From TrEMBL:
Its cofactor is Zn(2+). GO terms for biological process: formaldehyde catabolic process. This is NAD(P)-dependent alcohol dehydrogenase. It comes from the Bacteria. The lineage of its organism: Bacteria, Bacillati, Actinomycetota, Actinomycetes, Frankiales. InterPro entries: ADH-like_C (IPR013149), ADH-like_N (IPR013154), ADH_Zn_CS (IPR002328), ER (IPR020843), GroES-like_sf (IPR011032), NAD(P)-bd_dom_sf (IPR036291). Residues 13-356 form the Enoyl reductase (ER) domain. It comes from Frankia nepalensis. Belongs to the zinc-containing alcohol dehydrogenase family. GO terms for cellular component: cytosol. SMART domains: PKS_ER. The keyword Transcription regulation does not apply. Keywords: Metal-binding, NAD, Oxidoreductase, Zinc. One of its GO terms (molecular function) is S-(hydroxymethyl)glutathione dehydrogenase [NAD(P)+] activity.
Length: 365
């Protein structure tokens, strides 16, 4: 079938809006009409040298939409279902069997290579050439996508699909890290470095978890102001940050810290902000080696976190229920763009001007 997609043709070039041809869904796959797709900083990975999924590629991994067809063997999803699309996993490795699919043995191959495990894509451009189209098992920067069944979370049909896309990755990562991987305790102290979509989701989740001191650190005043409105008890300007400020606010150091930036200097601060027995979670994409002084790690835990350590089938319904109850107002982070404005949305995201751009493939400028 024909679909319209935003194709990244070159690592240093713009997305190009093109008509592409999609194969029907194969075994274990579903065809989804995409209503919304959040833009995440991970979507710029194919622009980096040596990326496992180089252009040409359709990215997008925070989709939401309506199922229009299902492939052989699909049992959890039916035509007409309203769905949120998240990351892919195998369902059968030790991590998947114990309920932590972000740590699937096949996570990197299923999510970051842009192709099925057999090397196929199922999408061709006007010349008949293949375009990588399995980014996080979905490639949702398009009017339609073929997604792996395990990516798909069925949601109630009365929910606003135009808002739900970001739940699939960025918001899941921030909130899941708090609820699952870090397991933030009631009455504890929590400091977030980077108050973008992931960091703000973590702040909202920390408030739900009952953390008594929640500190947001960022360079952008508008983000810090929003962090205060969403649950931060204190905010600090990241420019020239003095860790003594964090220690003063937490009575000697935070119980938990959370880095969303991937910046090695910021990560050092995130570890340095901890008290003995503290736990630091890292979700930012590090592009440089990280070196710690041995003494900096004594009595502390540092974890690299994928997708919050959360099962999308469990955490996404929970976040939706919290949103319905007014306790996780993630829609305050969103600014929408038509698919044709994807390059404007990407620039707004990377500059920090917009916290969570959401593309609406059915909209027109």
């Amino acid at each position: 079938m024909k679909a319209t997609a935003a194709v990244l043709r070159a690592a240093d070039g713009p997305y190009v809006i093109e008509e592409v041809e999609l194969d029907p869904p194969g075994p274990g796959e579903v065809l989804v009409r995409v209503v919304s797709a959040g833009m995440c900083h991970t979507d710029v990975v194919p622009r980096q040298p040596g990326a496992p999924a180089p252009p040409p590629i359709i990215t997008g991994h925070e989709g939401a939409g309506v199922v229009e067809a299902v492939g052989e063997g699909v049992t959890r999803v039916a035509v007409g279902d309203h769905v949120v699309l998240s990351f892919d996993s195998c369902g059968d490795c030790p991590s998947c069997r114990r309920g932590v699919p972000p740590y699937c043995d096949w996570f990197l191959f299923r999510n970051l290579f842009g192709r099925r495990l057999d090397g196929t894509t199922g999408v061709r451009d006007a010349s008949g050439a293949e375009v990588a189209s399995r980014w996080f098992g979905q490639s949702s920067f398009a009017t339609h996508c073929v997604a792996a069944e395990r990516c798909v979370v069925v949601v109630d049909s009365d929910l606003p699909l135009e808002k739900l896309g970001p739940l699939g990755c960025g918001l899941l990562t921030g909130a899941g890290s708090v609820f699952v991987d870090l397991a933030v305790r009631e009455g504890s102290s929590f400091v977030v470095f980077g108050a973008g979509a992931v960091g703000l989701a973590a702040i909202m989740a920390a408030k739900v978890a009952g953390a008594s001191t929640i500190i947001a650190v960022d360079l952008h005043r508008h983000r810090l102001d929003l962090a205060t409105e969403l649950g931060a008890t204190h905010v600090l300007d990241g420019a020239g940050l003095d860790l003594a400020q964090v220690r003063d606010l937490t009575g000697g150091g935070a119980d938990y810290s959370f880095d969303t930036t991937g910046n090695v200097a910021v990560i050092a601060n995130a570890v340095g902000a901890l008290r003995m027995g503290g736990h630091c979670g890292l979700v930012g994409i590090q592009t440089e080696p990280i070196t710690f002084d041995a003494a900096a790690l004594v009595g502390k835990t540092v974890s690299g976190i994928l997708e919050g350590g959360a099962d999308a089938q469990v955490i996404i319904p929970r976040l939706i229920e919290l949103w319905r109850a007014g306790r996780f107002p993630f829609d305050r982070l969103i600014e929408t763009f038509p698919l044709e404005a994807i390059n404007t949305a990407e620039e707004a995201s990377m500059s920090g001007k917009v916290i969570k751009p959401v593309l609406l493939p059915s909209a027109r400028p």
